[in-house]
What does this fold into?
Amino acid sequence: MKTKIKHTGALLTLITVLFFLGSCEDMLNTDSSRVAFEDDNQLKSPNDSIYSVIGILSQLQKVGEPYVLLGELRGDLMTVSDNASFSLKEINNFDITSENTYLNKRNYYTIINNCNYAIARMDTAITIRNEKVMLPEFAAIKAIRAWTYFQLAQIYGKVSYITEPILDYDTALKEYPVIGMDDLASKLITDLLPYIDVRSLNYGSIDGLYSPLFFIPIPMLLGDLYLYQNQYNEAAGMYYKLMVDKNYSISSGYISYWNSQARDGATGEHINSYIDEVITKIAYSSVPKDYHTDLVNMSFNNVTSLLPTQNFIDEMSLKTHFFATRLDGTITAYFTGDLRGHIKLPSTNEELGDAFESVNIAGVGPKMLIKKFVNGAQEEFTIPVEDNNGLLENAYILRSIPLYRHPHLYLRFAEAVNRAGKPTFAFAVLKYGLTEETIANPERVNPAELAGGESYLDFSFTSYNVGTACRGRGMGISKDMSDFVIPDFSQNPPAVALQDSIDWVEQKILEEMAAETAYEGNRFFDLLRISHHRADHPAFMAEKVAVKYGNPEAMKSKLMDINAWFLK
It folds into this structure.
């Protein structure tokens, strides 16, 4: 057994549970059935609650691949090739039929139903040594249920809201009320708020993975719900709470940069952020024969199904790169290209792909492919590589799909504070990094934005933040005074100038979300959420996504109907 329990106290009960559950690898096997449904089966001990949580976590694996595909193909960064399946082409074209293999509500409602079962039968009043020992699992399950519901709403536009265990899936969907995203967000906020300070779960190492990352932080999810509802101060407060509670920062350890002004070498550390900067992920088994997503084979293949959009490739390639020999150093050269896309050495044409990479395919020639999934995958020598994959010598399996990473947290925080009327503070997240020194600098943050004294403006807890944009656009970006700066809108009336600044910064935040978190499943929600802030919703997102099609005007016209975005 590979599980290592690193904590004492209440977690000692886990040792007994894991012994009876079998191997640790089996715990992350999606075929295991770990949640019982007998009517008289009550969850009356910590062991019971842990058992239920593990079962629910294994079921999340089935929605991991759809999470990525439905989140990205309905966005502006990913498209499909001619070799893609009929189902993938339907999603990409917003024209989904009943035969589509990704049209599967049941997987989501199964997770929700198992959460409902555990919630209904878990006795949170049980106290051992003055601690309500089942409350952490109870809160974690509520968070999983809320996240699953909100994903379901992002896919279908509305949900049947069920909070008690059901026996008949089809009957229940007809009997329970159907609500839209706004009503759902309100219900989920009310349901989660009482648990924002409940202790996080930590089962140590499970199957070689750090188990605290299996769980969804309630403040993060509440931040998303508030942000979707345009409650900006509340959203910022929740994101900030998570930053402080967990001491999350944007680290300089994940910067990709040129090693010299001659560009004869580069350091591509940003690639590692996909695995290392995780807040929450869906975990998969270390056993190759167990279920894993097919994202590597679909994206990095000589007959690939998924491709980066040309618009995204061009956008990343044209970004200014500010070369400096050290962080916050003097700019000594300007180049083009955001290194979070890919790095190509001018002298040798040697390439290191981050989000994407140009690959020479026999009989086709050079082709830009998505590299993110294979970068985050584990090479596996015990199973054969896919027969039709001519690019990889060995098979690769994804052990996890990140749902939240540090950049998601900081960029959504920036989105919230920007819309709360603090564009220079929000822009500092991108360009400088939020530290006490940066916030106190009136040339970087407008003092008027600090006048309200909101608690989320205090970043004295960390001195390690760097700007997200520096991580691919150069270590000298904070010294730039002309290229990456908020335009001067002061010729307009104050209220108009402020709104112009907010709109400009919001566009830069959205671009930064693409550079930092491309292909991670969140692009549709990013576009939907930001469009939802604006008076011209859904025109903003329709215009963004329509660019990737051969006839953008026709697609924009189609997507002006908000119902066209959702599966039926």
Q: What stands out?
A: The chain has three domains: 9-200, 245-253+405-565, 256-273+284-398. Confidence is low (pLDDT under 50) at residues 1-25, 32-40.
